[in-house]
Design a protein that fits this description.
By secondary structure, the protein is an alpha/beta fold. It is built from 13 helices and 17 strands. It has helices at 17-32, 52-66, 73-80, 95-110, 127-136, 162-173, 191-201, 232-236, 239-257, 266-279, 288-291, 427-437, 446-465, and strands spanning 7-12, 40-46, 83-87, 116-120, 150-154, 181-183, 215-223, 292-298, 300-302, 305-307, 325-331, 341-347, 354-361, 381-387, 391-399, 407-415, 472-475. The strands form three sheets. A nine-stranded mixed beta sheet has the order 16-15-14-13-7-12-11-8-17. A six-stranded parallel beta sheet has the order 3-2-1-4-5-6. Helix 9 (239-257) packs across helix 10 (266-279) and helix 9 (239-257) crosses helix 13. The chain is globular.
Length: 511
């Protein structure tokens, strides 16, 4: 892979959880693969009264706990020698003068060339003051006719609703130009999500079938087996629709449903996904209850262990109506997908952790080998597994050996884990490298963020304004609320369940 230009990565919120668990381990992997710039520096920014050495000790402990790769003490010391720290209150405008001076100092010391990438790993409330203070000190300025660049990477959530997202976009664009802004969605950095593009557009077998004539419906699932853990206070103001569907799952839908781009470059690819988001059929507030089902996990007994319900979690209101599960039926109103339903579901405390896309192909027009429609559903499925056990599985019917013509579903699958010599990079590893290279293909654009919020907003407003819209309970360890099945209007069509319910004393998963 291409090696980026020299640069300084400035991480705001450098002592936070994301930096420990994702960013620094990803940078270590890039370092070991010799993919970091020749001259590369990380400047951590935070409120801690740390020295450079304090920061390095902290990161060393983080690497021991969270890094997937193990390195010797000399290599680790060399890597951590690239890290520096500046104690700074992000809302203190005066402190950004110190940031500017420290950047100049590091730039001269390491011969960087004034290429800076700012990573906002902070609560959303700090996005505006950080960006404003960067602009007040001209730390975003790119000189014309110069190769020196400044880039801004922003973590989700990008806004709380459509109005706040538009306001944030407007504020940031007062300081940074849109080409400088990289809105990160780590699901787009996952190898299997990227492989959907290759699978579709590099193979003449499947793309001709990728339309309303051959596809009956599409499922997109993101299941988590854990609850909210110690994040109950945060989750109360978020819910699964804001946390997962508005960003991650709609982005996956965009990749699955998009038209072939004119070229594989950032603008061409993102132009096509934006068209999908703009083609989503609006769900009016009055029809939300028919098209969207929400639920909340309740206490359950899983493998002999008592699991608390959501309302019993720390920081959660005893009468909370925050959804931990949501399922919805979505339509893309364009020529390719007209009339094909996309079913999206996401939830916590489900039987397993899995993210996948299932393409359900239309049944044959005449059932030669059955007296009824028993085998009508599920005969032909293409399963694109995003996590875990990343891979692709195709299901089709085959004759059972022996007399007669009894049909049985069989699977043909590919797993990345079968490629013993192929390393599967972490999402943040790929996205950080792309950011340094200036490749925004896998980052969300401002108009895409607005379009996704525009689709989700009426749903959230309906839930807020109409207390009569039900929120159903589901036992922890099961596949969410039973009412989600009412979204399917055709007999014999239902959700795919890759694993059994945990409350059934066992987990049997495929792929």
């Amino acid at each position: 892979m291409e090696r980026p230009q020299n640069c300084i990565l400035v991480i705001f919120g450098a002592s936070g959880d994301l930096t420990q668990r994702k960013l620094v381990p990803a940078l270590m992997d890039l370092f070991r693969l010799n993919l970091l710039p020749k001259s590369f520096v990380v400047l951590g920014v935070g409120r801690k009264p740390w020295s450079d050495e304090d920061f390095r000790v902290f990161l060393g402990k983080s690497l021991n706990e969270f890094s997937h790769s193990r390195t010797g003490p000399e290599e680790t010391a060399k890597f951590l020698g690239k890290f520096f720290f500046l104690s700074l209150d992000p809302q203190d405008g005066e402190g950004f003068r110190n940031l500017k001076n420290r950047l100049k100092e590091l730039d001269r010391q390491f011969g960087i060339g004034e290429n800076y990438m700012y990573y906002l790993s902070t609560p959303p409330s700090l996005f505006d003051p950080i960006v404003r203070n960067l602009g007040a000190n001209n730390l975003q300025r790119e000189e014309s006719r110069s190769e020196k660049w400044k880039r801004l990477i922003i973590e989700k959530p990008f806004g709380y609703d459509l109005a706040s997202a538009r306001a944030l976009i407007k504020k940031i664009r007062k300081v940074f130009r849109e080409p400088q802004i990289y809105r990160i969605d780590h699901y787009l950095g996952k190898e299997t999500v990227q492989n959907i593009l290759v699978f579709r557009f590099a193979n003449g077998i499947f793309e001709p079938l990728w339309n309303r004539h051959y596809v009956h419906h599409v499922e997109i699932t993101a299941a988590e087996s854990i609850g909210v853990e110690d994040r109950g206070g945060y989750y109360e103001g978020t819910g699964v629709v804001r946390d997962m569907i508005q960003n991650h799952l709609l982005q996956i839908l965009g990749v699955v449903a998009m038209e072939p781009p004119s070229a594989f470059d950032p603008d061409a690819v993102r132009n096509e996904t934006v068209k999908i988001f703009q083609s989503l059929r609006p769900i009016p507030e009055a029809e939300v209850e028919k098209s969207v089902v929400r639920g909340q996990y309740t206490a359950s007994l899983i493998k002999g262990k008592n699991v608390p319900g959501y309302r019993e979690e720390k920081g959660v209101k005893p009468d909370s109506r925050t959804e931990t599960f949501a399922a919805m039926k979505v339509f893309v109103d364009n020529w390719r997908w007209g009339g094909v339903p996309f079913y999206i579901r996401a939830g916590k405390r489900l039987p397993t952790r899995v993210t996948e896309v299932v393409i359900h192909f239309r049944a044959t027009p005449h059932f030669l080998f059955t007296k009824d429609n028993a085998n009508r559903s599920g005969l032909n499925q293409l399963i694109l597994r995003v996590q875990p056990n990343e891979g692709i599985m195709l299901k089709f019917g085959m004759k059972v050996p022996g007399g007669g013509f009894r049909v049985k579903n069989v699977s043909m699958d590919f797993l990345y884990s079968d490629l013993s010599e192929t390393r599967l990079p972490e999402a943040y590893e790929r996205l950080l490298l792309d950011g340094m290279l200036g490749d925004s293909t896998l980052y969300a654009r401002g108009d895409a963020v607005e379009a996704c919020w525009g689709f989700i907003d009426p749903i959230l407003k309906a839930w807020k304004q109409d207390p009569a819209i039900k929120i159903y309970g589901y036992p922890a360890g099961t596949w969410g609320v039973e009412q989600a099945n009412t979204l399917f209007m055709e007999h014999g069509v239902e959700w795919r369940y890759p694993c059994k319910n945990l409350v059934d004393d066992g987990v049997v998963c495929e792929l």
